[in-house]
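Before relying on records like the one below, remember that each one covers exactly one chain. Contacts with other chains, cofactors or solvent are not represented anywhere in the record.
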Amino acid sequence: AAAKNAVDTSDWSATWNFTTSSLIYGVSPSNGATGQAVAVTIDWSTITGNTGFLYQLDTSSNFNSALLVNGTTGINSSEIYVSNLYFNTKYYWRAAAKNAVDTSDWSATWNFTTSSLIYGVSPTNGATGQAVAVTIDWSSMIGNIGYLYQLDTSSNFNSPLFVNGTTATNISEIYVSNLYFGTKYYWRAAAKNAVDTSDWSATWNFTTILSVTNVSPTNQATNITINPILDWSSIIGNTGYLSEIDTSVNFTSSLRQIYTSATNISQYTATGLLYGTTYYWHAAAKNAVDTSSWSSTWSFTTAYELTAAPALISPANSSVDLAFPSVGIQWAASAGAVTYQYQYSTSSSFATGIISNTTSLVTGSCTGLYPHTIYYWRVRGANANGYSPWSTVWQFTTESADLVPPVLVSPANNATNLLAANLNLDWNSVFGASGYIYEITEDVNFVTGITTQTVTESNKTIIGLANGTQYFWRVKATDGVVQSDWSEVWNFTTMYFGLAAPVLVSPLSSSVNVDFVAPTLDWNTVSGASEYIYEISKDIGFVTLVSTETVTNSQVTLADLLPGTQYFWRVKASNGFIVGSWSQVWSFTTIAETLAAPILVSPVDNSIEVDFNTVDIVWNSVFGATQYTWQVSSDNLFLSYVVSGTLPSLTTEVTNLLPETVYFWRVKASSGLDESAWSEVWRFTTRLNVGTANVISSQVNIYPNPSTGIFVVEGESINSVEVLNLAGQLIYSVKANNTNVIIDLSEFSAGVYFAKIHTNDGIVTRRLVKE
């Protein structure tokens, strides 16, 4: 190559050379692979710049047999799908790349061998107890157009029961039904495609189930109903079941019954059996071609018919003063009864409050009894065939209770500010009590002004109480005969209607320099109040509120107030129903926020050789500031020749300064309400104008600028270069002893940076822009 411009052409570059590739290599199937499907994707490497590929596939490694397959592919298509391969056959293949002018060498010849292996899946080889309708499943092979299968009771597949057939593409299973019970079957399968058929799989076998299995009634079960459900296991592929039941184990008596059930109904309800009799039964399955063997013969004995009611024994009828809460009862055994049901109730007709229990014993327990109460009880026998008649009804009476005093619950003792209207007294119930006597009075000694009443519930709503009054109350339990001692005496005070205005505490009215971050408003509590409502506003009329809230404490901590601002506040009390008057209005003024002076960044203090046409001045941000005022002057007191401005950003561009002049600059921050002090005063010196002798700026050049990361600095007597970010932090430095220096900012983010170039004549500052 050579470069040229408007007047000249450079010398040619050195001559280089390169060599193109002719290498194509196989990818898959891997060389020598076995067990491959009869439809496979052949894949090879690609070469950039191809217009397609050539491929060859053959059973001959010389690619000259009658089965040769060859062709071309499209651009960048480095694979070909081939199907209808022969089973258990070795294939050789290779590929080459082509373009518009040439064809590469053939790749190395690779080979693979197709599979002829089909193997059984289920039923597993040698499986027994199989259903007479079963799905035979074998392995699949990619590239098939179906499968062949054979099934027979002969391992040579030559009996009259021989079954064979084919399946559709990718269907590697077949459902066969109407098999014979208790019979061994042999089966095998093979795959096929359009040109070939695989070897048969290994011959597997399975044996069908011989008979069903009895389930219930369990063998030799007793006390069975005369209408029992005979249940046995099911067999898939059945068209129904047979069952026999007889009083003879040989099923030869005149009472023999035989039942037929529908498909998949593996149970039958027998009817018309005799009480207290032993029966034998078994079952069998059937399908369209066969009937299974009978199951094992099981027996059961039916329950006796219950005719007599049990005779009651104790406690004797009309017994009194029996201990509660539990009374034991007893009765005589009843012929044929397996269990007994007993009931007890406070109703002689057992119309309400019935409690029933079942037991296999001839004893029971009546629990949860109340004192001084009449209970009625009765018993009947039971077996699988039903219940006997109820016994006669007997009764007993429990003894009176030693009642404990009730435990009071609410209102809580010493409770205050309760609403007088419909106030509810509540206490815990007492075991054995049928009622409660309560008393309420304003007299702590319960001598005068007592209101009393007997109630059945463990609570009472009181009406007619006075507001702002203390009351005392107590309760005792009764069962109608005896009474407990009085409970504890508790008291409560009803609410006083009328709440005073809160007295404000702090901050004192007209306070100044109050914290604006988290000031606390505090006031005195008000008798009868349960909550307080406060308001805070910037106007004394509270037209626009800064904050308002209902709180339960007598103080609140505020947030988000403004500095240097006057606020007005007031509070009123509430008990949840009544709201009192507002307190006095107090005010306070928050402390003014003080802003820090900005920290200057660039040009660094005492910089020289600064461009007088354009200079960027940069400073750090100040917390709380919204804008900044800057000044540049040739007077360090900033009394004359001042260039200034106010803006929200952290940098500005100053133009049209004088060459070879010392300038001073400073910045201050403002929040709109507050203003910081001026920053430090920094200075910089502009460079000489072009054409002046010994102009340092003309001796330093940086290019390219902007750049994506690499900058070249050219100049005379460069000692070192330092690079600073906008925060004035040193991020890069390089020492030099020549006229060319490379700055590499490739690893830094895009933005504006400043280069300080140290020369024998001084420091030159330049702005760098990284894109």
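Residues 630 and 667 are 4 Å apart (CA to CA).
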